[in-house]
């Protein structure tokens, strides 16, 4: 439990008072009670305690990136013609960023991922998905978004993505 920076809202109590704006309620009956096995699992499904416990950090990361670092305003009408490039759409942060960009900010979303993830990312709201393995991926992205690409979020952050 996040203590909300208050002496009266700490985590070492039998009961806590939590601000509705910093709390996510899940239906525990829908959770799988078995521990996750090592291996690949469906992304973006919150049906385990592990998934519920980890999503808040990802959402905070996306929120801070969009609002504080990129300065994106939550004005869907003003953002209707603007694009965001999310490099690494199939990463945990990328999956959340696509949904937040589309649903909360009303942005058009261009993202990159291996071709096996394209349909899944489009189902989350990505408008255009390009394979980052393609030698001309940068040209494809520029052609799709042109001067309307106003924002970019790199969720991979390695030497190659930084130089792109």
Sheet with the most strands, sense and barrel status: 4 strands, parallel
At the fold tier of CATH, the topology name of the domain at 58-163 is Rossmann fold
From the structure provided, what is the oligomeric state, counting identical versus distinct chains?
single chain
Poorly predicted ranges: none
- Over the alpha carbons, how many angstroms does the gyration radius reach? 18 Å
CATH superfamily of the domain at 58-163: NAD(P)-binding Rossmann-like Domain
Order of helices and strands: HHEHEHEHEH
Q: Helical content, roughly?
A: 25-40%
CATH architecture verdict of the domain at 58-163:
3-Layer(aba) Sandwich
Q: Can you walk through the features of this model?
A:
The chain has 164 residues and is an alpha/beta fold. The chain has a domain at 58-163: Rossmann fold (3-Layer(aba) Sandwich), CATH 3.40.50.720. It is 35% helix and 12% strand. It contains 6 helices and 4 strands. The chain has helices spanning 49-69, 76-79, 92-103, 118-124, 137-145, 159-163, and strands at 83-87, 108-112, 128-130, 149-154. It has a 4-stranded parallel sheet with strand order 3-2-1-4, sandwiched between helices. Helix 3 (92-103) links the parallel strand 1 (83-87) and strand 2. Helix 1 packs across helix 3 (92-103). The chain is globular, with a radius of gyration of 18 Å. It starts with 48 loop residues before the first helix and ends with a helix. The model has no long low-confidence stretch (mean pLDDT 86).
């Amino acid at each position: 439990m996040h203590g909300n920076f208050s002496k009266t809202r700490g985590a070492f109590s039998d009961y806590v008072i939590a601000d509705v704006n910093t709390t996510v309620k899940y239906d525990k009956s829908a959770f799988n009670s078995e521990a996750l096995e090592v291996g690949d699992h469906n992304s973006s499904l919150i049906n385990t305690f592990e998934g519920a416990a980890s999503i808040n950090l990802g959402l905070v990361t996306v929120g801070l990136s969009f609002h504080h670092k990129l300065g994106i305003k939550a004005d869907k009408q003003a953002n209707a013609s603007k694009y965001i490039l999310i490099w690494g759409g199939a990463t945990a942060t990328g999956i959340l960023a696509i949904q937040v960009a589309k649903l909360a900010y009303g942005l058009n979303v261009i993202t990159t991922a291996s071709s096996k993830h394209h349909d899944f990312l489009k189902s989350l709201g990505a408008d255009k998905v390009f394979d980052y393995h393609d030698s001309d991926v940068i040209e494809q992205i520029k052609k799709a978004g042109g001067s309307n690409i106003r924002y970019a979020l790199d969720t991979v952050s390695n030497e190659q993505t930084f130089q792109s």
